[in-house]
Amino acid sequence: MSEQQLPAAWPAGVHPPGSESFERTAVGWLLDHVPADYRMHGVLSRHPVALSRLARQHVASSLEGARQGYRTARVELRDVLPPHAIDQVMDAYLTEGRRMASVLRAVEALDDALRAAAAQQAGGV
Length: 125
Prior knowledge:
Layout: H1 22-31, H2 42-46, H3 48-77, H4 83-122
Helix pairs in contact: 1-3, 3-4
């Protein structure tokens, strides 16, 4: 896959599939987008497709959390925050939701590429 064929969501700094440093740069990027404690599990670095699966689930859950927070914040906070603060909280949820959606698209692109590479290796191709 040449750089011209990389998905639009491909994360900056991750080398393209098939390059010598693809998995190393993918693992580094993925570890930067999951809880720090994931670094303690060597299996995730040794098997990048396992890391990308966990990252996909983690980021998707974070995005759903931001969406749920956005849906419920006004009602849950109306008795404890002034209206201008609630508006700022809503803006924070909106910004973070957009960021998480972008991260999720990038994680999905990496997960797809890592799965394809693993399938190729498993098939001996």
